[in-house]
Design a protein that fits this description.
The chain has 2 helices and 3 strands, in the order αβββα. It has 97 residues and is an alpha/beta fold. The protein has a 3-stranded parallel β-sheet with strand order 1-2-3, with helices on one face. The longest helix has 16 residues. The radius of gyration is 15 Å and the shape is globular. The mean pLDDT is 85.
Length: 97
Amino acid sequence: KNHDDLIEPELQPLIQRLDTRTIDLILVEGFKHERFPKIELNRTELGAPTLYKDDPHIIAVASDNAIANDDMPFMLDINHIPAMVDFIEQFIFSWKS
């Protein structure tokens, strides 16, 4: 099957299968069409277009190359994991407040 022909599962039914009483954070990959806060990962060598302009749920872009654009959400260095962790923690704390 072609990758474009694959049907992406819905996130909510998968989350309902988890015991959320014991979970502080759920990180997922994919689910581009779901409505939840996202960090777009973009490696320039792959030549993929950015998605943040068409998805208001993207809160940051993590890339290996600075993307200069005024309407872009927060920019992260995809190779600097501690900074990405700090951003996620700050987002969670500000979201809970």
